[in-house]
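Q: Can someone sanity-check these two? First one:
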Amino acid sequence: MQRMPEKIDQLTHLLTTYPILNLADPNTEFTISTDACMEGLGEVLLQDKSIIAYESRKLKINERNYVVYDIELVVFIHALKMWRHYLLGKKFILITNHISLKYLFSQPDPHARKARWMAFLSEFDFNIKNIKGKENKIVDALSKHPYNLMEVAISSIKTNFLDKIKNSLHKDPKYLDMQQKL
């Protein structure tokens, strides 16, 4: 039986390398799939149905008092802050299972917090696409168990992921293909 640190190292390796994670192509449209529940938030950044990055976190104490609509907005804001460097100046799609968010910009008189969020969201060029909750499987696990995946598999490990990513680039077929095109 493997010791626990070896299992965590193996899981970390699998979750942070190809084929789970792919390199972003600046010329391809991004899609962000989001989900929120009363436990946490989950987001996945995708290109051509390939995962570029993922993120999850527990809800903060004050966020647990928000109405469902605002929690769903929190997940948008969190995702856009995380991947701002990929998304600014590009058109992308935000996928949610909360249908009322499609009408986000047509609501009159938002409260102060929502007005700040709307100002932040207006920096980006995106369309909101609604899907059924059961079809949003990728982020469902991240939002329902944010502490399991991220804290145990990644955050608790003291390692330099940037070095690991740099070292694994030479094995990534998409990276090698992009290098040949340059």
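And here is the second, same format, sequence then tokens:
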Amino acid sequence: MARIDAAHVADAAVGARGRTAVNDLLLAAITAGLLAGAAMMAWVAAGAALAELPPSHPLQVAAAAFTARDPAGAGPGGLVSGALLWVVVSVALALLYAQILPRDFPFAPAALLGAGYSWFVMAVMMSVVLPRVNPLMRAAMAEVGGTWVFGYAVFGILLGFIPVFRRRVFAR
């Protein structure tokens, strides 16, 4: 029969705390990524509508990464693939950002850093990723002008909720 001593109990407690920290990080990042991505999409869709484009235009041009054709002709399947790509990228970016934020970081600095992080992401997307992966989206971003810049800011500010979610919502 195995003997249980204080060292085994301490190891078990650290393991449970480590799993809880990973769980709350994942849940908080996924939640914040979904909210931030949805808010950014709403912002950019409103900007597209103001530019007399269909509100679905951002999803259509995102779908062009898969279809490599005219985004307006992508149909409902294009909208679904554009939305899935938007969700995956939003959650992935939130997971990356969550890795650098301490759990006890206050909201205001996390939101400010999130805006800077998202503008850095935008710069990388515009200069490296989109020209190779989806040049149609890069060109379409100019059609709605500064809406994308503010959309990225909205995304980053909402990522500031990651430490708040970790502490208050998903803490056990």
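A (reply): Looked at the second one. Residues 6-14 have pLDDT under 50 and may be disordered. The chain has seven helices and no strands.
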